[in-house]
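--- STAGE predict ---
source: upstream dedup step, 1 unique chain passed
mode: sequence only
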Amino acid sequence: MVALRIALRYLFSKKSHSAVNTISVISVAGVALASMAIVCILSVFNGFTDLALRQASALSPDLRVEPVEGKVVAGGDSLAAIVRGVDGVAYASPVVEERALAICGDKQMPVRMKGVADGYDRMSDIDRVVKEDGVFALHDSLVGDIATLSVGAALSLEARPTSLSRVRLYVPQRVGRINPANPAASFRGDTLTVGGVYQTDQAETDADGVIVPLTTARRLLDYADEASAIEVKLDEGESTGDVSARIGQRLGPGFAVKDRLAQQEESFRMIAVEKWVTFCMLAFILVIASFNVVSTLCMLVIEKDANIRTLFALGASRGMVSRIFMTEGWLISLIGGVAGVIVGAALSLAQERFGFIRLGGNHEVMTTDVYPVHLYLGDMLIVLALVAVVGFITSALTAIIARGRFSLSLKGEP
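--- STAGE serialize ---
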C-alpha cells in the first residue's frame, strides 16, 4: 500500500524536468492509441462476421442434419418426419445436393444443384433475396418444373426469368451400363424453366447455385427417398443449442447436427483468422508503444535519486523501491489502456448507432453502405488483459533498473 501511494504521488506530481512530464504523457497516449485501435479493429471484424451471418441466414437453415459417413442417407423422408417430431422444431425437410452441368442456349457451366421440397420458402428467406424480375417457385401448371438460379449462374448462362429461359441440367448416370459408343447416354438430363434469380451477396452462395424441385433432383440421380441432408427450421424463440442436442439425442451418433456457423465453417474461420492475425499485429504495436514507459521510468528513476537515498535512510528495502517504480509503470500502462479502451468503445458504439463512416462504391447494389461494427465485452477484456500483461513486463524491466540504481545509492555513488 505504501508503494502504491508513493507511485501515485510520483505519477501525478510535477517533475523537476519538463521532459519527464512530456515523455510520461507520450507514453500514456501511445498505449491509449494502440488500445483504441485494437478495440475498433476487433469491433469491425465482429461487424463483418455478423453481416456475413445475416446474409448466410437467407438460405442457410437454422440447423442442418448430415450423415457422418457417406454423401446421402437412405429414408430421407422418414428421417425428416422424425426430426419434425422433436420439441422446438417448426419444420424439417430433406434436400439433395450434387454437382451438375447446366446448359442454356450456347452457354454452359458446372453448377451446384440443390433439390428442395415444397415449402422451401417457409424454411428459408429465399423470397427476400430473389431479384425483382423473378419469383421463387418449384412448379407451374403451364411450364412444368422451375429452377431458381444464383446471380453468378444466371450471368454465366445468360439466363433471364423475364425471357422464360430454359436451362438443361445433366448429371452422370449412377446406375446401369454405359455405352462407350454413345457417351451422351452416360448422362441423365432434364429441362427446367428459369423462374427467378437470387443474390445473397456471398461469393460461395452466389457463384454457381441452382435450386430445383426435390423430385427433379431425385429423378436425375436415380434416388428413391435418399437425402443429402435434413434442413430444420426452429420455433420462434427456441435455443439452437438445446434443439440441436435434442435432435442429436434422437438420431444417435450417425448424424451431425450443424448450426449456421458450422454450415459455413470455412468462411467464418477465414474471418476469425484475419481478425486474430490483425490483433497480433496491433498487439505488437502496443508492445512497442509500451517501451516508452520504460524510457519514462528510467528518467524518473534518475530524477528521484535523492528520494531513493531518503527512502533508504528511512529503512526502505530494495524490494520496496522496486515495487514503487514497478507500480508506477503499471499505472501508466493501465491508465493508457483503460482510456484507449473507453475511447475505442465509444467510437465503436457511435459507428454502430449512427454509421458516420461509410463504405465506398455504388450503395444501391451493396448490402450495407456503412462499416458494420459490433462491440463485444469480451474483446474489451482481452485488450485490457493484454495491456496489463505488457505493462507488467515493462514495469518489471524498470524495476530491475531501479534496483540497480538503488544499489548505487547504497554505495554512495552519484
